[in-house]
Amino acid sequence: ASGARLHMAYFRPGGVAFDLPPKLLDDIGAWAERFPQIIDDCETLLTENRIFKQRTVDIGVINAEQCFDWGFTGPNLRAAGVAWDLRKAQPYDAYDKMQFDIPVGTHGDCYERYVVRILEMHESVRIIKQCVNDMPGGPCKADDHKISPPRRAEMKQSMEALIHHFKLYTEGYRVPEGEVYAAVEAPKGEFAVYLVSDGTNKPYRCKIRAPGFAHLQAMDFLSRGHMLADVVANIGSLDIVFGEIDR
């Protein structure tokens, strides 16, 4: 919907950048019908594969209490037996209207982290189908041009709209003094932002809590007593993106 590969900037103050393109929901619905077969193909190759299980079962074991100590979230935490998912525990957006289950493991090793993710892909397809069927119509962003830019067509006819566009992109907008912490359930774990405003048009502080940073710090703990080759399985099962752990 945004056309970008990274940092789509699709969600913006006042709504989203653009409305959905025509027929996109139909394309997503058709994809959601086909994708479960791809998941099943992956399971056929891996889930009961003797070599795969030898490389992942009882490798990188971590229990629930240790997960809390290391700051684990998302599938890595749920694989250890903790049914914690912000979409259920603290619903946001439309998740309180969605019907889906939380896959939970018991052993907390590389294999169960894989299994949890496989099951979560099936649950994601369930959510996608519900969103496609129940997507409401209506405007996609607010009409307040102090926080949301006017449409290009409007700027060609209205000097006021042109001024709003100029001031918004050169000065931004001011936020009252205060602080806020917001977290969402991202595919790799809890992704959160802590913002502090001093009343100006720039944040006084912005702290981003990416899940991979907490997961990577446990690599030494998870790899103790294993072979060097098992480090690869640990990194893969934690699903770390190294771009989010750079500080």
What features would you describe in this structure?
With 247 residues, the chain is of the alpha+beta class. It has a single domain (21-141, 174-244), classed as Orthogonal Bundle (Cytochrome-c3 Hydrogenase, chain B), CATH 1.10.645. Helices cover 44% and strands 11% of the residues. The chain has helices at residues 24-46, 50-56, 64-70, 74-78, 86-89, 110-134, 152-155, 159-171, 211-216, 219-223, 230-238, and strands at 11-12, 15-16, 178-186, 189-197, 205-209. The strands form two sheets. A three-stranded antiparallel β-sheet has the order 3-4-5. Helix 1 runs antiparallel to helix 6 (110-134) and helix 6 runs parallel beside helix 11 (230-238). The longest helix has 25 residues, at 110-134. The two termini are 30 Å apart. The model has no long low-confidence stretch (mean pLDDT 94).
Strand order across the largest sheet: 3-4-5
Beta strand count: 5
**In what range is the share of β-strand residues?**
5-15%
Looking at the overall shape, the CATH architecture is Orthogonal Bundle
Individual helix count: 11
The secondary structure category is alpha+beta
Named CATH topology: Cytochrome-c3 Hydrogenase, chain B
Q: What's the mean pLDDT score? A: 94
What is the N-to-C order of secondary-structure elements (H for helix, E for strand)? EEHHHHHHHHEEEHHH
CATH class: Mainly Alpha
Topology:
Blueprint: E1 11-12, E2 15-16, H1 24-46, H2 50-56, H3 64-70, H4 74-78, H5 86-89, H6 110-134, H7 152-155, H8 159-171, E3 178-186, E4 189-197, E5 205-209, H9 211-216, H10 219-223, H11 230-238
Antiparallel strand pairs: 1-2, 3-4, 4-5
Helix pairs in contact: 1-6, 6-11
